[in-house]
Design brief:
Shape: elongated
Distance between the termini: 114 Å
Radius of gyration: 35 Å
Mean pLDDT: 77
Largest sheet: 5 strands, mixed
Low-confidence stretches: 3-25, 39-45, 77-81, 167-172, 268-272, 535-539
């Protein structure tokens, strides 16, 4: 059998054997560009516009390229790609096969996060999509591309870290020097003055004062939010509907009393830009009298005291009726709540009943009340106060100086702060000693836990004294306001007044015999017996 001769032929080109594919026939590459600036400054935006114009002309002028788009992001940091809409839209289009080549100025313009850069580049490489970094002269489909990108991205990331740390240092240095700024665009009541400090905008300041006034009249944050919305007053961000969180932020922001607590939050990671509430991880700075106050300090402290008083019962903060969280059942100590009777008929009406009436082992026997009955009882109780007007005025006047004196509590607070500082100094010294010399770590941890516990006890003591000072200051302000209400009231109240109810009444306790005991904010009590009726005894 003759031997067969094998012929081996060197193939110089695939095209010599197979017909050209559609991809090979199409010579033009679909090209896009990406441009970004990280700030909103005029200089940066000018650079941004120049980039867009350059890449548009550059791509269109190349006869071998087909222009797709110039994808852009303005005023967005490059440290993370999550919030960059233009960037994300470009990658999505590329993955859908709409782009063959992406041009960009540099790796730092593309992303300063090494992980994001490499992940994106590798994802594009899988689809044979190339990225060209002009400054570094790197093509990602080149064999050396990924090595260079890894090195360059790491350098860019470290540069970003350095910039972030320098900015953070600068901000904290300014804080330590007593300098601060506000987000005036979203901060109600202030604008930036010629001296760079906050200046009161009186039209907005009136809204802030109204919010504080309503809260001290026993309005809840929900009621205040609804009131502002109905009045057509825009929120600090210009929205029509007010949220309870916005109202609470105004009620608790010390800047409205002319002080400034700085570094309430801090950036945990410069890459993710994640922000955390400062619980002592980094220093805070408190500047007193840093700018003009919209709310006087006494009113501000009274509001903080009132917030703490209501906090254990969230409905005291967020309820939506004047009577909610005011009326108490004498049987179980629970609050009365509003219920609807005959809701699907023309006889529909609201009654107030103990919320816990059927919740315990025994049914509460306190009566139901109608809103007119509550209002009538208040008129009677307040007129009794007015009948002894001079006696109440004298009593309140004598109480005010006593409540204003917090000197003993202030001394206790100073001693507690001294003790806490001493304990913290010992703890830091003990920690430093452990870093300098070898110790038995079991004993070190035991002693550290003990010292840390002592510091926590001291901190609790400080908070307890501060709370007492706040409560006493709040009580002083409450009595002062009650005194003002009585002094300006006439000889008799002829109809229910919601404002008086809010400012004067602390609680109303209802007993089984339908006696309503009003406790006013000064601590005085007036009992009013209402006539019994069949309807209000229904369950």
């Amino acid at each position: 059998m003759p031997t067969q001769t094998r012929t081996v032929r060197k193939i110089e080109s695939v095209s010599a054997l197979t017909p050209l594919s559609n991809e090979a026939v199409r010579q033009k590459r679909r090209v896009a560009a990406y441009a970004r600036v990280s700030t909103d400054s005029d200089e940066q935006l000018s650079s941004y516009a120049a980039q867009v114009d350059f890449y548009t002309q550059h791509i269109r002028s190349n006869p071998e390229w087909e222009f797709v788009d110039v994808y852009t992001d303005e005023g967005i940091s490059g440290t993370n790609t999550k919030k960059r809409d233009g960037f994300n839209r470009m990658i999505a289009d590329a993955m859908e096969g709409k782009i063959d080549l992406i041009l960009t100025k540099s790796i730092s313009r593309f992303a300063r996060n090494t992980v994001d850069t490499l992940t994106t580049v590798r994802k594009l490489k899988e689809k044979k999509i190339e990225v060209y970094f002009e400054k570094e002269n790197i093509y990602t489909l080149d064999a050396k591309g990924e090595v260079m990108i890894t090195i360059m991205s790491s350098l860019a990331q470290e540069e970003s870290r350095s910039i972030s740390e320098n900015v953070t240092w600068g901000i904290r240095k300014s804080m330590a020097d007593g300098k601060f700024s506000l987000a005036y665009k979203y901060f109600l009541g202030y604008e930036k003055g010629e001296d760079g400090l906050p200046r009161i905008v009186e039209e907005e300041a009136r809204i802030v004062r109204k919010i504080y006034s309503l809260f001290l009249e026993s309005y809840t944050v929900r009621m205040i939010a609804d009131y502002l919305t109905k009045q057509g007053i825009p929120t600090p961000r210009g929205k029509k509907k007010w949220c309870v969180s916005t109202v609470m932020s105004i009620l608790t922001n010390e800047k409205y009393k002319g002080d400034a607590l700085l570094q309430k939050t801090y950036t945990v990671d410069f890459l993710t830009k994640s922000v955390k509430k400062n619980q002592g991880e980094v220093p805070q700075y408190y500047i007193e009298n840093s700018h003009p106050a919209i709310i006087d300090p006494e009113t501000f402290e009274l509001v903080q005291n009132e917030i703490e008083r209501r906090r254990p019962n969230r409905h005291k903060l967020y309820r939506n009726s004047l009577f909610t969280a005011k009326i108490i059942c004498s049987d179980c100590g629970g609050f009365y709540g509003r219920k609807v009777w005959h809701s699907n008929s023309k006889h529909k009406k609201y009654i107030w009943r103990c919320n816990e009436k059927y919740e315990g082992d025994e049914i509460c026997n306190t009566p139901n009340l109608t809103e007119p009955e509550i209002e009538s009882a208040f008129v009677t109780a307040f007129n009794e106060v007015l009948g002894e007007k001079e006696k109440y005025i004298q009593r309140f006047t004598e109480l005010l100086p006593l409540l204003a004196d917090t000197s003993e509590l202030e001394k206790k607070l100073a001693r507690a702060n001294e003790q806490h500082s001493s304990l913290m100094a010992k703890l830091r010294s003990y920690m430093d000693e452990n870093t300098r010399q070898v110790q038995d770590q079991t004993e070190y941890n035991r002693r550290f836990s003990q010292m840390d516990a002592e510091c926590e006890v001291a901190e609790k003591q400080i908070k307890s004294i501060q709370k007492k000072i706040l409560e006493q200051s709040g009580r002083k302000e409450q009595i002062k306001r009650c005194l003002e209400q009585i002094q300006k009231s006439g000889e008799i109240l002829t109809a229910f007044d919601g404002g008086l109810w809010n400012s004067m009444v602390e609680t109303v306790t209802v007993d089984r015999e339908k006696v309503l005991t009003f406790r006013f904010r000064d601590g005085s009590e007036v009992a009013v017996e209402l006539p019994k009726s069949k309807n209000t005894l229904e369950s």
